[in-house]
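User: You have something folded?
Assistant:
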Amino acid sequence: MNDAREVCGYARLSNIYKRLGLDEETTLPIKCLIIYPDQEQEESFTFTRYKEPIFDKVAGYVRLYKCGIRLPVIR
């Protein structure tokens, strides 16, 4: 929960909206994504500029999402 609050807090800074050229009074809250290690996930993870991936929504928060990624293992 502390991580979620921290990420949401940074995304709500006026300076972030200014840097992105957004009007903080009329723009929806910026989407936030928390990425965490999860060894049960697939081996690869990719983003593209053209299609937004679908992430799990964090209950109780507006526009906050989470995504587990598999980390490399040294054997």
In short: The mean pLDDT is 86.
